Amino acid sequence: MIRIYEMNKYLKENLIENRYNHTVGVVNTAIELAEIHGENKFKAEIAALSHDIAKNMKVTDLKKLIDEEGISLTIDEEKNMELWHAIVAPILGKKVFKIEDDEILSAMRWHTTGKENMSRLDKIIYLADLIEPSRKFNGIDELRKVAKEDLDLAMVKALTHTIKYLLDRNLAIDGNTFKARNYLLYNNVKL
Ligand code: DGI
Ligand code: FE
Ligand code: FE
To answer: Which residues form a coiled coil (predicted)?
Structure first.
């Protein structure tokens, strides 16, 4: 893995200012959640720092990388270009940042949609992305509180928020978002 200093340099050069500032917010929030929930803080920091590495790339470049890797997309992934930066994140994570840790690469990959049976690190990055200090939406203060108390309950609330957000805008919803939420409801969550 390259040094954190070098990662920051790459991100400052490749992300627009607001996106870089968002990334710093996600790093701080993810470290705080990792501390509270007994997750590896270093993995949380690297995953958070890298999660939007591909966010400001041109869609044609994102698609090119996806095709070069021979990744087959689901219909939802093919149709919703907003999801591509998360698909490319672990590719660049490996290529540019030389990240080899599968838990970090998974958290980068699933930070936008979530998926069935997420790891603790996956959940921390998904939540930190949504509740970092610069985010604003109705109910965010409650979600910030729950994220510190119960990761699974916070994930259900977060996924519900995302689904409502997409419904309100008449956007298609990726199947993994539903699977992530259903899995929690069928298994561990105490509502
Ligand atoms: O990259 P960020 O903005 O920090 O956050 P993100 O990775 O969660 O991406 C949010 C964007 O992705 C937002 O424009 C909504 C969109 N998005 C997330 N899930 C879905 C989705 N868009 C569609 N069409 N379907 C989804 O399931
Ligand atoms: Fe993102
Ligand atoms: Fe993000």
So the answer is: none
